[in-house]
Structures are given as C-alpha cells and as structure tokens.
Queue: 2 jobs
Job 1
Amino acid sequence: MEKRVVFRSAWLPYALLVPQIAVTIVFFFWPAAQAFWFSFQLQDAFGISTEFAGLRNFADLLRDEHYLASFKSTAVFSLLVAASGIAISLLLATMADRVLRGALAYKTLLIWPYAVAPAVAGVLWAFLFAPSIGIVTYVIRKAGYNWDWVLQGDQAMLLVVMAATWKQISYNFLFFLAGLQSIPRSLVEAAAIDGAGPSRRFWTIVFPLLSPTTFFLLVVNIVYAFFDTFGVIDSTTQGGPAGATQILVYKVYYDGVKAGDLGGSSAQSVILMLIVIALTVAQFRFIERKVQY
Amino acid sequence: MVENRPWLTVMSHAVLIAGIAVIAFPLYVTFVASTLTLDQILQVPMPLVPGDRLWENYSRALTAGASGAAAAPVGRMMLNSLVMAVAIALGKIAISLIASFAIVYFRFPLRNFFFWMIFVTLMLPVEVRIIPTYKVVSDLGMLNSYVGLTLPLIASATATFLFRQFFLTIPEELAEASRIDGAGPMRFFLDVVLPLSKTSMAALFVIQFIYGWNQYLWPLLVTTDESMYTVVIGIKRMILGGDALTEWNVVMATAMLALLPPAAVVVLMQKWFVKGLVETEK
C-alpha cells in the first residue's frame, strides 16, 4: 500500500531519517559486522596478537561438546517454556472467555506478571525454591523428595522453566483471549444445536480456528525463551550446575565476557544471528498466511 | 452463552481462581518476606503472614541498600531505572515517528533501502551482538552514562512499523486538503499527523516503558559504577553466595520496589497496554 498524495523535498526525508539510521548503523550494523569479522579470527589470551583463522572457530565450536550440550539445553528449555506456557494460558483464556461475571477482574489479575523483569522473576522463584530456606523446598522435603537445584541439573532446568513460563503466561493469555473472542458465535451455537458438548465444541471448532494464534505464539515463545530469558538464568542458576541450564545466549555472554574468548564468542553470535533470521522468516511467512485466513 | 451449564461455569471460576492464586503466590511470598526480619526468614519454614518490619526494610533498602560489598541505595537505582525507561520510550517514539513519516509521505531515492535497513534490525537483538556493541559504546566513552544506557536501545523496527501502518490508514484527503491550503510537510506533520497519532503513541509508551525498565543484560555490561546501577541489576548484586549470607528481607523489599512501577503501569493503563501489545506484534 502506498500513499497517493506525497510531499516533495530534496533533503527533508533524509533529515527525518538521520537519527534512526545513525543509531541503526552505529549500534546494530557496525557491531554485527564486527562480530562477523571477529568470528574468523583467533586471539591470544592477552589480546595482543590476532591472526586470521578462517572457519577454525566454527569448526572448534561444532567439535566442542559443551557447545553441543548447550544446543540441547536450549532446545529442551525453549520447548518446555513454549509448550507449558501455551497450554496453561489456553486453559485460562478458555475459562475467562466463558465467564461473564468478573471477567475484567480476572484479566487484570492475570496480566501483571508481564511487567516483572525476567531477572526479578528469577529472584522470586529462586527464593521460593531456595535449597535451605525456600518455603516450597520445605514442602517438597516434607513430602519426602530431595530438592536442591544448586546441585541437580534437572531440577535447575525445572526452576528456570517455571520462572520463564510464569512471566510469559500473561502475554499468551491476552492473545488467546483476543483469538477466542474473534471466533464467530454462530459457529459455536450451530454446533451446540446439533448436540455437540462443550469439550467436543472446543476440540472440533474452537481449537482449529485458534491454530493461527497458537502457531504465532509458538514462534514468539521460542524467540522469548532463546533471547529474553537471559535475566532469568543469570539471576538463578548462572548456567549451572555443570552447564545444565547454559542456554546459547548465556554461553555467548559467558565465553565472551567472563572467559574472554572473543573469537569463539563471536562465532557463536554469528550462529545465533542465523537462528534469529530463520525464526523471523518463519514468523513473517506465517503472518502472510494469517492475512489470507 | 450458548447454553446454561451451571457446573461448567462454577468450574471455570474455580480454574481461574486457582490459576490466579498460583500465579500470585511468588509475589505474595516476596511481599511477606519484605515485612519480616532476616531471622524470621531464615527459620524454616518462614511465616506466611506479613510481619511488622515493612517500614524498616523498605527505608533501609531505599536509603542504604543491603550490607555487603556492593551496597548502594535503591532510591538512586530507582531513579536510574526511571530515567532509562522514560528516555528509551520517548526516544523510540520520537525517532520512529519522524522516520516513518519520511517513509510514508515522501518519494525519494533509496527509500526502500532505508526501510529494509530498519527492518533487519529486528533480526539483531542485543543478546547476539553483546561484545562488539559493548566495544563500540566503550570506544565512544559512553560507559557509566545515561547516554550509553539508552541510546543503543532506542532504534526500533517495531515502533517504525507500527507508525507506518497507522500513517497508511490516515485518509488521503487530509494530506490533499493541507496541501491545497498551502501547508508544508512539517506543518502537516505537526498539525494533522501528530494529534492523530496520540493513541498509538500512548500504547507504545506503555510497552516501551516496561521494556526499558526491565532491561538487564545491557545495564549489566555498561554500568560498573554503583551510582549508575538500575534497580533490576541492583537486586542481582545484592544476592551473595549462600542463602544465609544474603539479607533477604532487604532484597525482597528491593524486588517489590523493582516490580511495582511497571506492574502499576500495566494495571492502571491496561487499555493502552493491551492495544500496544497486540499492535506491536502485527
């Protein structure tokens, strides 16, 4: 879509674009290009000499079992966050769509976790489940289980998944609620007249009609789990124990900032950029389909 | 409703109330912990009714912070967070507004090139270019400054898209009429486009304020000076190694202080928040 009526000026449009483009070049393109460039270089431990290394950083990474383990943790983490977040919020949204009384109050009480910073969400959950003083830990121990996420990798993963999902439920809930409310009432009524019960109506009519929303949320949640959960990890497990929760973004940060491996960290950045591009393309492909639907 | 099924309605309410209770539980425990003494928290299990130390804990946090290596008053951190959130929100709105005005209302060479240039920044989140971006900011001497905290985050493809979509829905007749009346492009922008964009700006402000307030990785890298910490990273620095060493009562008061402003914005400006959330994802 284009405007028919436009203004003419040889310089004004450029002047209006300067701030945005300048920030974009200085803080986006230039650093991205540098990450690309560093990823082909090897640096010694003191940063004094660098040499061109071709694809060696990438080859090293693909041979590094820690990096491959990090890929696996990221996949497990993002699938768990996306699946549990979508399931819980779909349940809540379906219920909220049914009730007439108190709908606004329910909505208000469900959306506030969106405002909590991932790092703060991590602190809240880590406190509940703290190995020695956590109140939930106390209950779990009473029930006879051993809970210590500082030492147990699976439990650490469970903790970060819970904290990350908790924060994302409100987002999914709002989109599901909007999706549910846009489903034509006549379809549901027709099915009811034909004798379909509530659960049958949900699975044969509502759920299929929600599939564009569900797919959209799947992509958004995976992107969220990949990148925005850095704060959750850093304020709770810091990638531990023994790398069990070291997702890709955390490893880029850890290797580059804490371990000082510029080449390896940059090569990881480049791989991550490729993943973001793939996810963004998936998202936009889908949006085109949604318009037809 | 399609049909009257009382038991299903009761169940819906029950599920919603249970969901809300589970979701609110971490917040409730945090609030209770922020009103207790450290000794009360350390005795397992900690009490689940609020104590009487609310005032002491919060004023300690605001004026002094937790004791330990990185003690800094949270009052100052809240100010830093506020400056960062407001500067990012206003900065994003300002530069995106004029950029999309140029892209929609002018025809000029390289127009599509610039549009794509803004578009691909969607694919370069700060998390994937951490170290080079840090180097650029450090070379420009912007570490430990508000400029360094905000400027690198104000380019926004989503805001530019949102305004572009909105400008495309403004009737052509308005631009035509302005041109016939002899108004130049900037007059048209100020007198017609800007007033019409108010609701989009408000919605975007809410979303970007939360985005700015909740930033974590970027301030963690850029600020080394305690007086420049934001409250979100301040909490992290207060948590020391073992559970017993940390002053949990002050940490939890700080956590409440860190989450109340954005949560208040979401709840009080719910209408704008929902609008902004849905529109920035189109």
Note: Residues 74-105 of chain B form the longest helix (32 residues).
Job 2
Amino acid sequence: MVDILQFEFMRNALWAALLVSIACGIVGTYVVVKRIVFISGGISHSAFGGIGLGYLLGINPILAAIPFTLLSALIMGTIAKKIKISEDTAIGILWTVGMALGIIFINLSPGYAPDLFSYLFGSILTVPASDLIVMAGLDAVIIFFVAVFFKEFSAMSFDEEYSTIIGIPTHVLYILLLCLVALSVVVLIRVVGVILVIALLTIPAAISRFFTDNIRNMIILSIILGGVLTTGGILLSYMFNLASGATIILLLGAVFIIASLFKRRKPA
Amino acid sequence: MNGDDIVSLKNVRVYFEDVLILEDITLSIFRNEFLAVVGPNGAGKTTLLKVMLGLIKPDTGEVRVFETTPEEGRKYIGYVPQLTSFDPEFPINVFDVVLMGRYRGLFKKYSAQDRKAAESALETVGMLEYGDRQISKLSGGQQQRVLIARALTREPRLLLLDEPTAGIDIKMEQSFYEMLSELKKKMTIVLVTHDTGVISTYVDNVACLNRRLYYHDSKEGSLEKMEELYQCPVELVAHGHPHRVLRTHEDG
C-alpha cells in the first residue's frame, strides 16, 4: 500500500482528496441544511461553460471556471427575485444554458480538446500540482468566509425571515453562500467532474446529519467522511482500474445507504 | 399619532401579484394592550404582521412603528412566527435557537451576557431543562415556547405572535395564556389566529380581519362581525368555550 505513494500522481491525488474534503465538508453542510441542492447542481453544471471558455481562450479551464461559476451563482441568486419566475425554473434554464455554452466554446476552439472527459466526470489521478494550488487557495477563501459569517450562515439557514428581522443581511449573505458553492464546485471539478460534483456536496453532509444535531460537528464529520471516502474511492479505482470520480461516488452512495439503515434501528 | 400608539397603520393596502390581500387597514395599537386579531385562513393575518415588521411593503398607506419606520422600529419587536417558518430537522438545539435572538450584528460574538439572557428567557417560558434538545424533538407547544423565548431575549416592547395556539391542546392553552398575561405586564402583545376559541379572558381587544379590518374595543362588539366574517354563528366556531368569547371586557 505504501509503495503506491511513490508515484507523484498518487500523492497529488491524495492531496486533492484532502482539499476536496474541506470544500465539500464545509459548503456541503450548508447545501444540505439550507436545502439548496438543486441550485448547487445548477451552478456546478453551468461551470462547464467556464471549462469550455478556458479551452477557447487557451487558458487553464479550472481558472476560467472560477469567474464563470461565480457569475452564474450571482445570476441564480438574483434572477428569481428580479424577474417573476420561480427559482427552480431559473435554475433549470441556467443549468442547461451554461452547459450549452461550454459545448459551443469547445466547438469553436481550434483542434482537439484534450482532457475534456476528465472535466465532465473527474479524474483525480491526473490532477496536476498547479491545480492543487488553485484548489488550496479556494479552500482558504471558503474557510475564511464561513469562519467570519458562521453565525449568520447558520441563522439564515435555519430561519431566513427571522434572520432578516434581527438584522442579518440575508440577501447579500445568501448570494455569498452561493458564491462559496461556486468556488467549491471549482475545487471539486478535477476530482469528480461537473456532472458528479453535487454528490460530494450532498452525500458526506447527509451521512453526517444522521449522527449529529450540531452544525459545527456536522461540518467536522463531513470533512472527515469526505476525506476518508474520497481516499477510499481513489484506492478502489486504482486497484480495480475504474473511473475514479464514479468509484468515489458509488462508495459514498453505499456508505450513505449503510448509514441510513444503521440510523433507522436507533430510536429517534 | 398620539404618544400611546406604538403601532399605527393608516389606509394600508397590500396586493400580492394582482390579488388584494389587505384593504384599507387603519389600526392603532396602544401601549400595554393585548390585542387579538381574528380571521379565517387566508384573511391576511400573517401579512398584517409582516407589514408591521417591514417585511412586506404596503402598496399604499402609511405604517409607523414606535414612531419610526417598520425597519427601524422592529428592533423593539419580538416576533414569534408560525411553527412552519423554520425547518424542524435543522441541526440546532433549543439553546442555540434562543441565543439567535441575541444577534447584534456582523462580527459580534455572542457574549456571556447573551447566554445568560437566553437562559433566563428559557426559564421564563419554562423550557430551561430542554436546552440541549434538538428542536424537532419537542411538542408543538414546547416549540412555540422556544420561539417566544427567542423573541424575549431581545427585550421587546411589542410581542407579535402568529397562530401561537396551533397544535396546542386546550389544557396547554390555559397555561400558555397565563404565561402571556404575565408577559403582558411588561409589553404590548398582538396575537393573530384563525381560532376564535383563543379569545380568552386575557385579551383586552379583538379585531376581526378578513382582508378588511374591523377593530373593536370590546369583545361583544366584535362578535357580530365575527359571525359576518365566518358566515356562521360564533358559538359554533368557538365550540368548546363560547363563554370566553361572549364575556364583555370591563374596559369595553
């Protein structure tokens, strides 16, 4: 087991797993408790537009995805309040428009698009060191904002209207939370791809929710679970030569099912 | 407005989309009054409270709360929303829900004093021993008390309660009203409900709301209006304790 750490790609993969667990543990907890899974799914899929833009401009697609996902988070956070459409309709539109833009951008890019598949479905075994630095930077931003606004995020996730009454700027902070979701998506893309990102933002937090009634503990437990299960998924995919992103998610899903059965036996 | 009105609404109209929800509401709430606003479901009761809180802006009319705008005035208001306003499965315990009431602004941590205030509010509503419980592991009546404690931590001058007796049985209701009448010594209370049975001896005044407001100083006066609003005899509506509804208040 130790000898696989000799490979640089494997060391990078384990670093990636650690960085991913921080983003999915912290932001995933809010995605689950604030019930913004669908909007987060929208943001993650629209990130594909940013990936395509990166190809078109000839820059690192991960870097191009940052402003793109932030913009889509801003639009999703405001559009439903400005125009009279329901939020889930707005999400459905942006979700697909973002992906379609990505496809067109890649069409327009000269030549063949290498690694395209890895952005769609993830490829943790091929994460370059430069992307690890980007991921670490984004994690730092996420930790900073959640540490500063922890009580506001928690209060408005529990009861948004009451939070407004007691003076929390809920609308601004909601958009900030969506921006943190956007940044998490960028952190996770390399590992599980835009299509599977939402699994890492929901499953570890959903499992943790079974075992704690405290949001702080839920974040910590989600980080641990995310780290352990992502690493486990990497090792399984390496041993059985399976796609890493899909393996990680199947492992998450399996643990979720086991945890829910275990939880059901306990008296409420 | 004279010095004794703490809330005053003048010709307030609220539309939602194109539907008229509140029509020409004119209402004054006096200091240390205990007002019950009664009306059927969909009458605009919650909307009326939200107008006072500045959460909903009226399309026309004027709202003054503590002689200022609702946004400014709401810092003196303790709001007790309906139980459906929050997610009961949220990972939070009773104490932290109540502590939330002490929120004072960005970058300000909850102090030891805030914790003490949360504890004393829990004690006031008789829920101190449940501080560690996750909120969904309480009965409806207990959850209601927790939300009242949360409102009390802000040391409000006006307490607004939205359907506080929903999900409370008759026995609990009695002790609930006794608690409110204790609180009434320190603050003004406005309660909205669709249940006319709640209009107990503790209430000073009753207003009837069904898009329009019929405000009365005595309970007896509002009785006819209630019949009109509900389209059925009040004795039937207030089944179980009509005597409370029919009693005339001394101040009337």
Note: Residues 231-252 of chain B have pLDDT under 50 and may be disordered.
